[in-house]
Design a protein that fits this description.
By secondary structure, the chain is an alpha/beta fold. It folds into 2 domains: 55 residues, no CATH class; 170 residues, Rossmann fold (3-Layer(aba) Sandwich), CATH 3.40.50. The chain is 58% helix and 10% strand. The chain has a 5-stranded parallel sheet, sandwiched between helices. Helix 9 links the parallel strand 3 and strand 4. It is elongated and about 75 Å long. The protein starts with a helix and ends in a 6-residue tail after the last helix. The structure holds adenosine-5'-diphosphate and magnesium ion. Magnesium ion binds next to helix 6.
Length: 248
């Protein structure tokens, strides 16, 4: 390779344009082959770097989100359920609710697609530039209770607090004690009017009170969650049961 190109590559690296540095010989070859103008070459270089950065940023945010699995809205079959019409799904996909800090509550028995839908929306949000954090209620309580003495938990809670969309999966699969309800309130209060929350639960909000014990805290949590909210009731047959493979 030409010495000047090597020098240029190292200068690109110094300027922290690492991806472009690697790609420079190819870009220059192409420029020669199809006789790009100077402007076209410069444009190709900046496009390349910006696209790479965008890709990397999406990758980073995907990791940060910690989804339990990768399932997109494309894979969510509207015909397999009756809670959302094609139009409603498209509306959710447009993410206006997220831009306006609305919360979503997805209710329904196991297997109806609550987690899939929340992950699909999360992936969509990441692709549109938002920061997303996925956590189950069980994990969240664990993180909250250990953050005082575990650096790892502290980091995770910080990420959650810095996210535009927080998905809390399986909200009320277990009863909380007073301390847990308090910690949970603090999270909701922090996120209130700052981020959107997607909650999934197999119990309706009327039943949440019982599980949180303390009526005052329950009211305070519900006030914030339900202030700006869209509730999607996903009742129907379990997709898992309908599509399971029969052994016999
Ligand atoms: P839950 O409501 O218990 O959270 P999940 O979202 O985990 O259920 O769905 C269970 C399984 O069924 C997942 O593998 C999910 O991808 C699939 N599933 C559920 N609903 C649909 C749907 N409408 N279209 C495609 N797959 C679905
Ligand atoms: Mg689930």
């Amino acid at each position: 390779m030409n010495q000047t190109v090597k020098e240029l590559q190292s200068q690109f690296k110094q300027l922290r344009l690492v991806e472009t540095a690697e790609e420079l010989p190819r870009l220059l070859r192409e420029a020669e082959q199809v006789s790009w103008t100077y402007l076209e070459l410069l444009e190709a270089i900046t496009h390349f770097e910006l696209n790479k950065r965008e890709e990397k940023s999406i990758e980073r945010r995907m990791k940060w989100a910690k989804f339990p699995y990768h399932k997109t809205l494309m894979e969510f079959q509207v015909k397999e359920q009756n809670a959302l019409s094609e139009r409603q799904l498209t509306q959710l996909q447009e993410l206006n609710w997220l831009e306006q800090q609305y919360n979503l509550i997805l209710l329904g028995p196991p297997g109806v697609g609550k987690t899939h839908l929340s992950v699909g929306l999360g992936i969509e949000a990441i692709q549109k530039g938002f920061q997303v954090y996925f956590v189950t209620m069980g994990e969240l309580l664990h993180l909250l209770k250990t953050q005082e003495f575990t650096h790892k938990s502290q980091v995770q809670i910080k990420r959650l607090q810095a996210s535009d969309l927080v998905i809390i999966d399986d909200l009320m699969y277990m009863a909380m004690d007073q301390r847990e309800a308090n910690l949970f309130f603090q999270v909701i209060n922090h996120l209130y009017e700052r981020s959107s929350i997607i909650l999934t639960s197999n119990k309706s909000p009327e039943e949440w009170g019982e599980l949180m014990g303390d009526e005052g805290i329950t009211t305070a949590i519900l006030d914030r969650l339900l202030h700006r909210v869209e509730v999607v009731s996903m009742n129907g047959d379990s997709y898992r049961m309908k599509n399971r493979q029969n052994l016999f």
